[in-house]
Design a protein that fits this description.
heterodimer; A: mainly beta; 7-stranded mixed sheet; B: mainly beta; 5-stranded antiparallel sheet
Chain lengths: ~120, ~110
């Protein structure tokens, strides 16, 4: 256990559905991240939140909508997805870089299948 | 654009042998991370390398960083089956609380 939990662990949704992925960290971190891991591409950064503010959006399509209500919770809202969006979605958290050890801790991931 | 390249991408080796995985990156960075991923699992942090010449060892794995050459190595000594996994290196996209850019991963299979 890394202190980062994700729900659900598996999700199957149709292209017209709306669903949300949830991430929670119990490490007292202030930065949270969404990554996508698919069979065809390397692990890709999607979004970065630092102290609840989005600081990075890696050209992610608008059908993915992140939300960070507080430093412990991160959501990824999904709507009108495409089959190529099927992937493992990983959440991570860390402390902001201070010149000392800075490590991202990953959750177990949500395996998403779009039918 | 930051690029992180690993080689080899696939490695099959026998127990007891030594081998090295290489990670090159395209822009200046003073930090580099190594992660391990088992099939169907999430990423587990192995090493955080924070400066030029940094070397860290954990069991049969040793990682080093040469920031001038933009190169990190992950050396496996006397491999055992339990080390079979996919290994990723990653470099921060920039300063501050940044996401990481990952290499494609090295899929390592260690045959008994």
């Amino acid at each position: 256990e890394t202190g980062v939990t994700q729900t659900p662990r598996h999700l199957v949704m149709g292209m017209t559905n709306k669903k949300s992925l949830k991430c929670e960290q119990h490490l007292g971190h202030n930065a949270m991240y969404w990554y996508k891991q698919s069979a065809k591409k390397p692990l890709e950064l999607m979004f970065v939140y630092n102290f609840k503010e989005q600081t990075e959006n890696n050209s992610v399509p608008s059908r993915f909508s992140p939300e960070c209500p507080n430093s412990s919770h991160l959501f990824l809202h999904l709507h009108t997805l495409q089959p190529e969006d099927s992937a493992l979605y990983l959440c991570a958290s860390s402390q902001p870089w201070t010149g000392d050890t800075y490590e991202q801790y990953f959750g177990p991931g949500t395996r998403l299948t779009v039918t | 654009e930051l690029k992180v390249e690993q080689n080899p991408l696939f490695l099959s080796m026998q127990e007891g042998k030594n081998y090295t995985i290489y990670c090159n990156y395209s822009t200046t960075s003073d930090r580099l991370y190594w992660y391990r991923q088992d099939p169907g699992k999430s990423l587990e942090s192995l090493f955080v390398l924070l400066s030029n010449g940094a070397v860290k060892q954990e069991g049969r794995l040793m990682a080093s960083l040469d920031t001038k050459a933009r190169l990190s190595t992950l050396h496996i000594t006397a491999a055992v089956h339990d080390l079979s996994a996919t290994y990723f290196c990653a470099v921060p996209t920039g300063g501050g609380a940044d996401g990481l850019t990952f290499g494609k991963g090295t899929h390592l299979i260690i045959q008994p």
